[in-house]
Amino acid sequence: MAGATAKESHRMSPVMAASSVRRVAAVLVFAALSMRSSASIADNPIVQTNYTADPAPLVYDGRLYVYTSHDEDVTVNDFFTMNDWRLYSTLDMVNWTDHGSPASYRTFSWGTGDAWAPHGVARNGKFYLYVPINNSTGSKIGVAVANSPAGPFTDALGRALVSTGSGNIDPNVFIDDDGQAYLYWGNPNLYYVRLNADMISFPGSPTQTNLTTAGFGARSNSDRATAYEEGPWFYKRGSLYYLVYPADGTPEKISYTTSSGPLGPWMYRGDIMAKQTGAGGSFTNHPGVIDYKGHSYFFYHNAALPGGGGYKRSVCLEEFSYNADGTIPTIRMTTTGPVALGTLNPFQQVEAETIAFSSGLKTEVCSEGGIDVTSISNGDYIKVKGVDFGTGAVSFDARVASAASGGNIELRLDSQTGTLVGTCSVAATGGAQTWMTKSCTVTGATGVHDLFLKFTGGSGASLFNVNWWKFTPRDAPDGGAPDGGASGTGGAAGTSGRGGAGGAVGTSGRGGAGGASAGSSGSSGGGRGGAGGQAPGAGGNAGSAGGASGGAGAGTGAGGETGGRGGASATGGTTGIAGTGGASAAGRGGSNGGAGSGVAGTSGAAGGAGTGGGGDPAGCGCQTSPGGGLRSPLLMVFLLVVAASRRRRLRAAPAPARQR
Prior knowledge:
Blueprint: H1 6-10, H2 14-34, E1 51-60, E2 63-71, E3 84-90, E4 96-98, E5 103-104, E6 119-123, E7 126-133, E8 140-146, E9 154-155, E10 172-175, E11 181-185, E12 191-195, E13 207-208, H3 213-216, E14 233-237, E15 240-247, E16 253-259, E17 267-273, E18 288-292, E19 295-302, E20 314-320, E21 350-351, E22 354-355, E23 357-359, E24 362-365, E25 371-374, E26 381-388, E27 393-402, E28 407-413, E29 419-426, E30 431-441, E31 448-457, E32 465-473, H4 633-652
Antiparallel strand pairs: 1-2, 2-3, 3-4, 3-5, 4-22, 6-7, 7-8, 8-9, 10-11, 11-12, 12-13, 14-15, 15-16, 16-17, 18-19, 19-20, 21-32, 23-26, 24-25, 26-31, 27-30, 27-32, 28-29, 28-31
């Protein structure tokens, strides 16, 4: 304001003051957004509660699923020990939900073991799971069917779909644009069939693909002519068909070939992922390639988990982009994986088995349905990435069961030792599947963070089990009665009648309306404005404004005494309306509308100046939830700016002439 005098500068107009406040608020909002945590990145391996291998991704109904084989914790005869298949899914590519085992080799009455690399596909409202079993007794490929991706699957035929002798492993199914489905499989040979529309039969006999070095690359040793080994992943992008496969013996690398048609001829394109060596390496690998939400992903396995090895493997994934000519770049294994595609909502029920990373835990079938997290020991944890707490959370619920002495769930932000926002105590419930919901208060959880559920307690390998968890947001209603009581009646005239207090709220209801306007002025003073409706119920809306001003009289005409008090998690009450000044005394400033827990209330405005004297200044700013200070330094700055602006306006008001 160049050229303005000091007095003019001090006497800022209300419009200019409001504009300044808005500018400051905009800056603070921008700063707050800038302070949000950076995008979450996945953790590899994506599953830690089991050893998993041979990933087969499937996108269905907006969700990405991945079927895997399952290496048992105890290896028998120093060879692949695999009895069932597992299923996991995600919406954001960083947090994975465990759906348990949709099938095992026992799903097939003719099965004898060896639940190796699976492949799932959806068609006509059904889900088909193609699996190799019985490797040790003559490998065969079976097909099971279900009504959902998670099963349960049942044997579709009661016999093998494919049985050509040996090497019937690693089936892969692709449905082309014209509706024709193809099944590829095999080690050391590569076979295919055209599946019928029923997906469980095919005409004729399997065809063996002619493997050439021009199509599948040259092998580095002399045991076979070409580099093709096993595990084909067949798909189409645009008009080009891709076949990605483990190659060149063991340890395996991942290579690929392309064709203009689904059956070849094939043109070798090179390597995608190098052989694994050193710690965390597996002598096998198995690709899965898929697009999801506009991004391209490459699944594989290694042996990176503690205790891992060639027979205890772990599924991982990386994001990649195709080159302009459609070729696939070289992809390196990482421990970080892709960037998250979104955030997780903690205010809806989250299954405990939804995990970005964990330590020391297992999962099991839950008596309440689905899966629960078990084998919890002191110091174990679950990490969930990109949890968006928004403006804040006030409580945490967990569905737990304990046959032991229980323990605690520490809620920490961004690391195992990060900010502690709550601790939920878990006592014995009377059984490992006897479920109770435990709750605790939460303080300081706002914005986007990685959430760590850190488990603490006594000794033992199973303190308690967890089925699900959920936070309550700061501004959530409790679902009580929607409205408060009726407004009070204004005071009688002639005695500085005070407007009736606002009605009390129903449970979690809205504040009652403010009192009606005060009674007529009496011989000694004007009526005082009605008090704003109170709203102590959780989640209530703000109370209405105080009643209208009292009539002019000889006494003191006061502004509405208080704004309605905001219910928990609601905005503060509306400012009291200023009263008309009495004949000789000053109008009194309305008090601030108190805030409910969570969002700060609106500050009360100053009372209107009476004809006999100036209005007193407004009271202090809003308060935050009971039992805690202001949660955000940005909010503190904003409130200070607002208060300073109001003080400037009040000081700038001209002093009224003194009445005699």
